[in-house]
Amino acid sequence: MLDVVAKTIEKYSMLEGGSRVCAALSGGADSTALLIALKDLGYDVFAAHINHCLRGEESERDEAFCTSLCKSLGIELFCERVDVRGYCAEHSVSLELGARELRYEALFRIAGESPIATAHNLDDCLETLIFNLTRGAGAHGLASIPPVRGRVIRPLIDCDREAIERFLRERGQSFVTDSTNLVPDCSRNIIRLNVIPELKKINPGLTSGFRSTLSALREADRYIEERAAELLNKRGNDFSGLADDAVLSRAIALYLQRNGIEPSFDRISSAKGIISSGGKINMKKGVYLLAAKGRLSVERDIPEEPERQFSFSEGAYDLSGKRVVVTKLSPFDISRYQKNELRYFVDSDKISGDYTLRRLSGGDKIRLPGRGITSAVKKLLNAEERRTRLIIADSAGPVFVEGIGVSERICCGPDTREALIIDIKEREK
């Protein structure tokens, strides 16, 4: 098995000799074999065990096993516990998805700048292909689990489970078994426990034959991926007039990923449907995909916040993830400033009464200095800006629009003695 792992690392340029690498360690056969293999091959390996706290005493047993194993191998181990049930309740996601998101978040935090090695193997790839096939999948789904994804590497990806367990038996190395993997109560377990054994009755060499098929699928997938990335980098969000359906689909998938949306067959199909006709579709809660003239954009709901009442004076005011900073400038000499700068200057003597910091309302209008007309604010902004820009208003309407400027009725002039400068920026988290 060591030879296969070494060739896989070299083939996919996963690591350089002696590299420091973080091994994701659950204590199961696959991750135990991975840890030992990396150490035997001379890598500077350290381990991370994420306790999902979902299986009571069994979870405690797994953590204790990993601690003992790493101690016996002289490998540094980092253990972290995550509240999967609480996370899933808060974010309305399944236990499987919640556990995965928290696990990778913790792994990246522990690994720092080092690559993360996970123990996915050839059998996992076969199970994933069948799982994707049952849901409907394109070339990318059929290519199954990639050997490398960003900083995540999979050195066991060309090893089957039989070879992994044989490697451990020859070493006299024990491992733990997750009891939930032995019950056919979810799709992946049904595939692993019921479907694949039946397929092996037809072809006992199923896994070996699948290795060749998977290699061909990955080559095709890699070619499409490269073409799609080139297209996306060249054209940005413009998807109009693209005839190659395979590349178009992958480019859309990459676009969705870059905007924090997990691509799926249905989401990609829906996106293709609105590219030519235009429109807006819901991707997930509070996230929408828009198309206009072949260009895609992503829109997200902004949590509603009550408008902020304040006295227009020097200070800082927060709303909708932004900070409005008002700075006093006295004495003020208008001749020292360019016209564009004066858009953000307010004459202090023209300020009176109560003011409101809020987002755009449909009927808002503003008369900008030197224009000679009163304009609807929404006509001065694009769709995204209408959703996100802040407005300062008094009882008579807007006196300042973020990115546009101040109203004529409070702007600075030659007689201004003291000015207030308005600066709006994203609030630091």
Description:
- There is one protein chain.
- Helix 2 (29-40) links the parallel strand 1 (20-24) and strand 2 (44-51).
- This protein has a 6-stranded mixed β-sheet, with helices on both faces. It has a 5-stranded antiparallel β-sheet with strand order 10-14-17-18-19. Strands 11-12-20-13 form a 4-stranded antiparallel β-sheet, with no helix packed on it.
- It is 40% helix and 21% strand.
- The protein folds into 3 domains: 2-213, Rossmann fold (3-Layer(aba) Sandwich), CATH 3.40.50; 236-300; 308-426, Phenylalanyl-tRNA Synthetase, Chain B, domain 3 (3-Layer(bba) Sandwich).
- With 429 residues, the chain is of the alpha+beta class.
What's this, in brief?
With about 425 residues, the protein is α+β, with helices and mostly antiparallel strands. The chain has helices spanning about 1-10, 30-40, 55-75, 85-90, 95-110, 120-135, 140, 160-170, 185-200, 205-235, 245-260, 265-275, 385-390; strands at about 20-25, 45-50, 75-80, 115, 150, 150-155, 280-285, 285-290, 295-300, 310, 315-320, 320-330, 345, 355-360, 365, 375, 390-395, 395-400, 405, 420-425.
Secondary structure elements and their pairing?
Blueprint: H1 2-11, E1 20-24, H2 29-40, E2 44-51, H3 57-73, E3 77-81, H4 84-91, H5 95-111, E4 116-117, H6 122-135, H7 139-142, E5 148-149, E6 152-153, H8 161-171, H9 187-202, H10 206-235, H11 245-258, H12 265-277, E7 279-284, E8 287-292, E9 295-300, E10 308-310, E11 315-319, E12 322-329, E13 345-347, E14 355-359, E15 365-367, E16 374-376, H13 383-388, E17 390-394, E18 397-401, E19 405-406, E20 419-426
